[in-house]
Write a structure and sequence with these properties.
Elements: H1 2-40, H2 44-56, H3 62-74, H4 78-91, H5 96-107, H6 120-129, H7 134-155, H8 161-194, E1 196-200, E2 204-208, E3 217-222, E4 226-233, E5 236-240, E6 246-250, E7 254-256
Antiparallel strand pairs: 1-4, 1-7, 2-3, 4-5, 5-6
Helix pairs in contact: 1-2, 2-3, 3-4, 4-5, 7-8
Length: 257
């Protein structure tokens, strides 16, 4: 009797949690659609307010970031537009619409920084890492793992020598690609955890030689430029540009992608 009562309580708790999650998801969708309606009516300020409300509540998604980027672009806030296009692209690296709008926004930036030349193999490797998101590479790795396990299992069931050869070759290929995809996934995770990129959102920023307002200026940058965030001291962050220049800026002058 007591066990039955406990089971009823447990089931009720699970159902209540499910109902709450479902209700929250519905509410999120309704708010997002309201933001879309404001955007359609060209009320971009209201659209930004709605989308930012979702972001501040912990929600994320390609469409949310993309629409927020579009709204900022329409209001002339290029730095914030680029920030959210980059966030959207991080979730969906193959999306052509995001890439197109990001390219348009970058045309409006003042700073045109040329990247330091890379050896072609490094460029190819970076492109391979960016081919899928971390979730995508996790799925790819899992697929090759399943192929390897199935190949091992089938090897002990097939009796035909030709079939055994096919299974062995399939298993070896699965193992090889599993090692490659696992390596890529590990490097991708390491990159996401240890390398932070940001976008400058202030109109004009005087980059300092050291983390101090009294320090000499190293150079000047403007909103929309993408930077690597390398270190933090108090309310200052050390940035590196794609051309290798380094310096310090106030933490709130750049937002992490």
């Amino acid at each position: 009797m007591l066990n039955s009562f406990k089971n009823i309580i447990l089931c009720s708790f699970i159902l209540l949690n499910f109902a709450a999650s479902y209700s929250m998801a519905q509410n999120e969708e309704e708010i997002f659609l309201q933001g879309n309606e404001y955007y359609r009516l060209k009320e971009f300020g209201k659209a930004i307010e709605v989308y930012n409300g979702l972001v501040n509540s912990g929600f994320e998604g390609t469409s949310l970031y993309y629409n927020l980027g579009n709204s900022y672009y329409r209001t002339g806030k290029i730095g914030l537009a680029i920030l959210y296009y980059e966030k959207a692209l991080k979730l969906s690296p193959g999306d052509e619409d995001i890439r197109h709008n990001l390219a348009l926004a970058n045309l409006k930036t003042i700073d045109k920084v040329e990247s330091l030349p890379k050896f072609f193999l490094f460029e190819w490797w970076d492109g391979l890492l960016a081919l899928f998101t971390t979730s995508g590479w996790t799925i790819v790795t899992y697929i090759f793992y399943v192929i390897l396990i199935l190949s091992i299992g089938f090897y002990f069931f097939v009796r035909n020598s030709l079939q055994q050869k096919i299974v062995v070759i399939t298993g070896l290929l699965g193992l090889a690609f599993l090692i490659i995809s696992t390596t890529i996934l590990t490097l991708r995770l390491n990159k996401e955890l240890n390398i932070k990129n940001g976008v400058v959102v202030e109109n004009v920023v005087n980059v300092k030689l050291s983390p101090d307002y009294g320090s000499d200026d190293a150079f000047i940058i403007h909103e929309g430029i993408k930077v690597r965030l390398e270190d933090k001291v108090d309310n200052w962050v050390k940035i590196r540009l794609e051309d290798g220049k380094v310096g310090w800026i106030p933490e709130d002058n750049a937002k992490i992608i």
